[in-house]
């Protein structure tokens, strides 16, 4: 079933804030097999010029999707989640993410399009601190296989 | 923050040495837990086959993280990666054995930008498949 184009341009209210912890960064770094001490050791991070341990570039996936997640579950959108695969992903940083950051994510559906037999939907997420400082913008495109019939 | 690579020491067309990253089932279980993506296609062979996949496949974001690690290791500082985007072009199939799958990542300096930034074009392969396409990282060099 084609996705409902009325959802293009929809903005979703900011998420509850997400507190970035050293423990979560360490867990995520271990899960991607990256042993860089900058992800684990505050002193190593400070020696590299950072205020605290830093998050790997793809870390925002841990919390950024939840904000737009409600949209994808809305029956009016017409998405069959069992057929969804990840199409594209991008992280555009204003500054790195550090342990101790309290971040909020505001999601907007920016595009829905057909490519062959698939439906593609793109969500842009603006990640800022609770104080409003821009940190990172993510672009997530999902593919609904066979969605276009 | 400071990358260890000097902008002036880098040339357009320069190839970065390739690196291999092994993916076994345990890595996908760890990634599922750490990322919160519990889709069973990444850890349950029975379910993966039911939905028409050849076997369990790696999370696209796991593969993206391996190519990200390749760039941060080269740059010497994860904070130097200011923009990183990929398209997922093929699946990484992860068999249930001790070897798992291998993701081979390589890169080339595609462009030198203003402010000591460079664009690295990345290639990631698993077996015969190119698993990422249009993979680009913008890195702030010293």
TrEMBL record, chain B:
Domain of life: Bacteria
Stored InterPro entries: Fatty_acid_synthase, HotDog_dom_sf, MaoC-like_dom
Coiled coil region boundaries: none
Pfam families: MaoC_dehydratas
Any single biological process term in GO: fatty acid biosynthetic process
Example of a GO cellular component annotation carried by this entry: fatty acid synthase complex
GO terms, molecular function: fatty acid synthase activity
Boundaries of every MaoC-like domain copy: 14-110
Family to which this protein belongs: Belongs to the enoyl-CoA hydratase/isomerase family.
Protein name listed in UniProt: Acyl dehydratase
């Amino acid at each position: 079933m084609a996705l409902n184009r009325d959802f293009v341009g929809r903005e979703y209210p900011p998420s509850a804030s997400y507190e970035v912890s050293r423990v979560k960064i360490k867990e995520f770094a271990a899960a991607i097999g990256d042993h860089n001490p900058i992800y684990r050791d505050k002193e190593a991070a400070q020696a590299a010029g950072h205020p605290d341990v830093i998050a790997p570039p793809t870390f925002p996936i841990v919390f950024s999707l939840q904000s737009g997640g409600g949209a994808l579950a809305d029956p009016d959108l017409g998405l069959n989640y069992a057929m969804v695969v990840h199409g594209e992903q991008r992280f555009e940083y204003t500054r790195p993410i550090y342990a101790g950051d309290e971040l909020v994510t505001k999601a907007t559906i920016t595009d829905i399009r057909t490519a062959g037999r698939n439906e593609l939907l793109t969500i842009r997420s603006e990640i800022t601190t609770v104080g409003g400082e821009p940190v990172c913008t993510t672009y997530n495109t999902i593919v609904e296989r066979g969605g276009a019939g | 923050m400071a990358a260890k690579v000097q902008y002036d020491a880098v040339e357009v067309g320069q190839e970065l040495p390739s690196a291999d990253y092994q993916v076994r089932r345990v890595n996908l279980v760890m990634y599922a837990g750490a990322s919160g993506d519990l889709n069973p296609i990444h850890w349950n062979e029975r379910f993966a086959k039911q939905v028409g996949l050849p076997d369990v496949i790696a999370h696209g974001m796991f593969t993206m993280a391996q190519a990200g690690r390749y760039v941060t290791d080269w740059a010497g500082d994860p904070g130097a990666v200011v923009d990183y985007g990929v398209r997922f072009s093929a699946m990484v199939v992860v068999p249930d054995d001790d070897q798992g799958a291998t993701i081979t990542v390589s890169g080339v300096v595609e462009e030198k930008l203003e402010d000591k930034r460079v664009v690295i074009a990345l290639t990631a392969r698993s077996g015969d498949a190119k698993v990422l396409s249009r993979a680009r990282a913008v890195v702030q060099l010293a």
